[in-house]
Amino acid sequence: xxxxxxxxxxxxxxxxxxxxxxxxxxxxxxxxxxxxxxxxxxxxxxxxxxxxxxxxxxxxxxxxxxxxxxxxxxxxxxxxxxxxxxxxxxxxxxxxxxxxxxxxxxxxxxxxxxxxxxxxxxxxxxxxxxxxxxxxxxxxxxxxxxxxxxxxxxxxxxxxxxxxxxxxxxxxxxxxxxxxxxxxxxxxxxxxxxxxxxxxxxxxxxxxxxxxxxxxxxxxxxxxxxxxxxxxxxxxxxxxxxxxxxxxxxxxxxxxxxxxxxxxxxxxxxxxxxxxxxxxxxxxxxxxxxxxxxxxxxxxxxxxxxxxx
Length: 309
Known about the structure:
By secondary structure, this protein is of the alpha+beta class. The chain is built from 8 helices and 18 strands. It folds into 2 domains: about 10-70 and about 235-305, Phage tail protein beta-alpha-beta fold (3-Layer(bab) Sandwich); about 95-220, Jelly Rolls, CATH 2.60.120. Helix 1 (about 10-25) packs across helix 3 and helix 7 packs antiparallel against helix 8 (about 280-290). The longest helix is centred in the first third of the chain and has 17 residues, at about 10-25.
């Protein structure tokens, strides 16, 4: 997740860049790509002792948990209950959506007009295209829209529970969360409007983001780099001074069952900075717990808590 930050500072910028290097190196598709990324990273570290120090700290955090996954016998009863609850509670439009992803699945879809959508874990969208408009109806989850230029000038709009985000350019992310929606612009500009005030949009520029509800659009905030914003498309999450409850909420997207914080009020001031792997959420959780000196407790593999030791 690309964390919100109103202003930039030197340490934040260094952490952002160090996180980018880790995402680039760990996400390399071939050994040649990895070697090239590692060489470029070494050159960056050699530029300044602070670069090397911050990168080493981030790398140590990433490598802190290298124990193999424990073998666990799943609780069949809990799995059945969770499956039934999900089936009953899942809105019809989600499981009947044109495009949807399963838990832990991230998928890219190319549309008829040449635009592309990358759907995060647990995302559901309907695609509606006619002579006047290209509309993506977001029912749940997070989507990256890469918008192709339309010869007839049809607008490209992502609509959802809280309002709409209309592309005035090419790439942006729309994330429909539990209580609000977030838009992050990676290229060009996007007009965002709440559902109750569709005629009062605000225009976001590249590198800006905003949270909004169905009633109002919040203040603009800066987002982390494009690499950090897109880390989830490469099975990573990047955080910079993020509240622990936000980290847990993000990890919950990719895990079955319930992941929560015990005594959340007591831990509300804890902040986490680092890169987490999404292809092993147990390891990701251990990284968070070790970094923040928390304890992991579980009733079953499907009911897990973070708590103070």
